[in-house]
Amino acid sequence: MQMTIDEFWQEFKSRHPEVTTDHYDAYPFGYEDADELAHLVAIGQKTATTSALGLYEPDEARPFVGEYNIILDSHDQPVCVTQTKVVEEMPFDHVTAEHAYHEGEGDRTLAYWRRVHREVFTQEYQNESDEPFNEQIPCLCEVFERVD
């Protein structure tokens, strides 16, 4: 039987009585590769992510240190819980090789990270913004830890 996101959160809290908040975010990573990326988080290989700051809505919540996140698969089913440890804003072309490595995807190099994120962000900017993608767009780089 599959659990709802709220049931998954309540079960997580029952195993972690130190967690006193009811605030969490729930989302899949990526699009067609959500299952693979959720798996990388579940096994501890993916411990970072990057989003394009310019694509957030003005009133949309931004990630913050201490936030809990439920990582979903491609069917919006909960896979695991993470907690955000670091959030840094920086231009796309300043993202480091270390951050790319911690994103845990492909060969974990900065070249791979740039190629994939350039493709994704270019598409997202075309679909969601009047501005085109460029290498100086502000990015939110998050580091997280799988906690369950």
UniProtKB/TrEMBL annotation:
Transmembrane segments: none annotated. Residues 27-148 form the ASCH domain. InterPro entries: ASCH_domain, DUF984, PUA-like_sf. It holds the Pfam family ASCH. This is ASCH domain-containing protein.
